[in-house]
Amino acid sequence: MAMPTDNPEQCYDNESVKFFYEKSGKNISDHWRRRDYVIVTLGMTVCFIVIFSNLLVIAAIFKNRRFHFPIYYLLGNLALADLFSGISYLHMMFHTGPWTIKLSVHQWFVRQGLIDTSLTASVLNLLAVAVERHQTIFNMQLHSKMSTRRVFIIMLFIWLVAIIMGLVPTMGWHCLCDLENCSTMAPMYSRSYLVFWAILNLLTFSIMLAVYTRIFIYVRHKSKQMSQHTTQMRHKETVFNLMKTVSMILGCFVICWTPGLVVLLLDGLHCDVCKVLLYEKYFLVLAECNSFVNPIIYCFRDKDMRRTFMELLCLCRRGGKSKNASGVHFSTLEHENYKSRKAEPMERSNGTPLIHEVSEDMPVSSEKWN
């Protein structure tokens, strides 16, 4: 970690942003070009879409009691991280191109810290979702029995860690006192910090992929032990469909962020022949696009979420809710068990039980997924 030394002459805290960009070899223009206008216009458009779509997801989870379960609270927190990401990128759009020259060193660190915080929050939320799914699936339950209070404590912890990680470079892990160790992509970040940051996130991605792979293997193994009993088949579809949805969210995140993290790692390792600046902006746009992919996945996979979106947008009548949606239903276990007992009161399971039996009473809430 490059910490400031006792001799202030060895540090460059009072230098301009342009000074560091020129030292690192990253071009910075003092006038607007057509390319700058295109980047800012497209970037701002994407940011507004990200902000609006994730606000819609958060509002839907608050509005619909069918989403008041730990897994949805964590997915809502992921939407909050994506919303914060949209705000962070919007802030960057107003502090990029020729505007970058006018930034102070502190303002530049704030700009980068917001992006780092949003990424950390997204990664930690996905890790929390993976752990929650591992816990529930291996107990063959649809929803965790974790209390709402504990879920919110986890969410607060996620944001606390994310904020700290965003502040780490400002607190000392920079190159203001060691110009030879400055990054090319982020001219005031230490190369060692970029290596740490990229490896930590790539390692987390690998852990999450391993967890989901283990879950899928377990579910497939259990499904082979099941009979063709209607209740068991519904349970299998229920669990597997939720797994498909959260896996799609994880997969899109990994696809969108991995190229950028790999480029950061190469920059941190001082790969001169890699030409990281050539791909930087493209991978930044790809990472930004991830923040509005999740609402599309929710809308595509979840009928109740899609219906709630439409209600929030006033695109359908309040009293015109259809109870007979087509497709595979993703209901809570309680609802599925109730329907199965209602349709087949005399039938008994003769295979390995996939999910434990629950109360005989009809539950209040249910979810439906494609």
What does it look like?
The structure is a single chain. The chain has 370 residues and is mainly α. It has 10 helices and no strands. The protein has a domain of 224 residues: Rhodopsin 7-helix transmembrane proteins (Rhopdopsin 7-helix transmembrane proteins, Up-down Bundle), CATH 1.20.1070.10. The N terminus and C terminus are likely disordered.
Helices and strands in order, then pairings?
Elements: H1 17-24, H2 34-63, H3 70-93, H4 105-138, H5 148-167, H6 191-224, H7 230-268, H8 276-301, H9 303-312, H10 333-343
Helix pairs in contact: 2-3, 2-8, 2-9, 3-4, 3-5, 3-8, 4-5, 4-6, 4-7, 6-7, 7-8, 7-10, 8-9
Protein name: Lysophosphatidic acid receptor 1
Main location: membrane
Membrane topology: Multi-pass membrane protein
Amino-to-carboxy terminus distance: 49 Å
Beta fraction: under 5%
Q: Calculate Rg over CA atoms.
A: 24 Å
Biggest sheet character: none
CATH superfamily label of one domain: Rhodopsin 7-helix transmembrane proteins
**Percentage of residues in helical conformation:** 55-70%
N to C succession of SSEs: HHHHHHHHHH
Do you know the CATH topology of one domain? Rhopdopsin 7-helix transmembrane proteins
CATH top level class name of one domain: Mainly Alpha
Broad structural category: mainly alpha
CATH architecture type of one domain? Up-down Bundle
Mean model confidence by pLDDT: 75
